[in-house]
Design brief:
By secondary structure, the protein is of the alpha+beta class. Helices cover 45% and strands 17% of the residues. It is built from 4 helices and 4 strands; from the N terminus they run αββααββα. The protein is elongated.
């Protein structure tokens, strides 16, 4: 159902009907959940790799981390996320 929703999102602008081809559809009931799940998948992969490497110094920088849709709150992270966001998330 998620695949169908993403593939069948259209927007009306003036008298044009445009198909959304990039991103997830905003304004639907499931949009916040899809955004959280999408970003969580990248964060989980990164943190899981750090755990496998036993890199507890960096893992501890994410102890006080909270997410709300596409906003992240980090306390005492020493700007780790800012300098390594390209290692966690895709360019787009």
């Amino acid at each position: 159902m998620i695949e169908w929703l993403i593939d069948n999102t259209y927007v009306i602008v003036g008298n044009q009907v445009l198909r959304q081809t990039i991103g997830i559809p905003m304004g639907t009931d499931c949009a916040p959940f899809l955004a959280n799940l999408f970003l969580f998948s990248y964060e989980f992969r990164c943190l899981n790799n750090l755990l496998k490497q036993r890199n507890f110094t960096v893992l501890n920088k994410f102890r006080r981390c909270a997410r709300y849709i596409d906003d992240v709150l980090l306390i005492n992270n020493d700007n780790f996320l800012k300098s390594h966001k390209h290692d966690i998330y895709p360019k787009n």
